[in-house]
Specification:
Distance between the termini: 18 Å
Bound molecules: phosphoric acid mono(formamide)ester
Largest sheet: 5 strands, parallel
Number of helices: 11
Strand order of the largest sheet: 7-6-5-8-9
Structural class: alpha/beta
Length: about 325
């Protein structure tokens, strides 16, 4: 198998299909390891990883921290809310100060699209983008696709529909790119106001009728309505109740289908808005499998980037 081609993971753009397959193969091995009684390996021993979170996170932050600890890295965590960013320090200065403490890899979530790319031009250590504004969230797309390959085998020709707030989502763009690399057919479905026009030019189908989209797809990836990013004076849809009526994934809708799709949600969920509680908690939902796989996939990414450093490998 070819070596990993990247020095950073800034987005799915830039990855080759071989890179994604290598991440999945490596993640499979790590998934076995983290399900054993002794869940730690020494692969990143003597390396220090800084998790820089300039925006809130539960899953991604904990998942990276666990992944790093399972690989025996030393870990430092930074949260903008309690830092000197509040005193006006720039991103580059904050990171340079952290690197002066001899950090080997940086994981960063930031509200500004392109922040990870900017940082990669300023500092000489690998950067993993843990979500940059409404742009990309590459490890989420990788763990989503890894979860689907476990369920479906090859994704070639599989029909995946991404539902909901495409406009404000970083998960949507990363998923479209990753699914396209793996040969899936992709559709996006939501109100016209929440689907940017450029999505059609990415080679994806666009649908505004949820029931038609559900008939079409093998997989439904339901995205959160990002109310905190919808600062517009004119709302993107009339009310949460109406949104749920037209675009909420409910048992009633699923019961009308002869072949219900596999259901994914990256979290956090707005229960009763884009997904009903009953659907979220279905036994066949893979939502918590996504979270479990997130640790293995992030271990794989960290391991492959550390390998490019010439750091310790077992
Ligand atoms: N899926 C995801 O990115 O969740 P968090 O915002 O909790 O990290």
């Amino acid at each position: 198998m070819a070596d990993f081609s990247q020095n950073h993971l800034l987005g799915i753009r830039g990855l080759t299909k071989a890179d994604v397959e290598l991440i999945f193969e490596t993640a499979k091995g790590f998934k076995d390891i983290i399900n054993r009684p002794i869940r730690k390996v020494p692969s990143l021993r003597d390396l220090t990883v800084a998790n820089l979170f300039f925006e809130n996170s539960t899953r991604t932050r904990l998942s990276f921290e666990l992944a790093e600890k399972r690989l025996s890295a030393d870990v430092v965590n930074f949260s903008a809310a309690s830092s000197s960013v509040k005193k006006g320090e720039t991103l580059a200065d904050t990171v340079r100060n952290i690197l002066a403490m001899k950090v080997d890899l940086v994981v960063m979530r930031h509200p500004h699209p392109g922040a990870a790319h900017y940082l990669a031009t300023k500092i000489g250590v690998p950067i993993i983008n843990a979500g940059d504004g409404t742009h990309e969230h590459p490890t989420q797309a990788l763990l989503d696709c890894f979860t689907l390959t476990e369920r479906l085998g090859s994704l070639t020709g599989k029909k995946v529909c991404i539902f909901g707030d495409i406009r404000h989502s970083r998960v949507a763009l990363s998923n479209v790119r990753c699914l396209a690399l793996l040969g899936a057919e992709v559709m996006v479905c939501g109100p016209a106001t929440l689907i940017p026009k450029h999505f059609a030019s990415l080679g994806v189908r666009v649908e505004h009728d949820m029931d038609r989209a559900l008939e079409w797809c093998d997989v439904a990836n339901v995205l959160r309505i990002q109310l905190e990013r919808q600062g517009a004076e004119v709302p993107f849809f009339p009310s949460l109740e109406e949104y749920h009526e037209r675009f909420g994934l409910t048992t009633e809708r699923l019961n009308r289908l002869s072949n219900p799709p596999i259901i994914l949600h990256p979290g956090p969920m707005n229960r009763g808005v884009e997904i009903s509680s009953e659907v979220a908690d279905r036994k066949d939902s893979v939502i918590l499998e996504q979270v479990e796989n997130g640790v293995a996939v992030r271990m794989a990414v960290l391991y492959l980037l550390a390998g490019r450093l010439g750091g310790s490998e077992d």
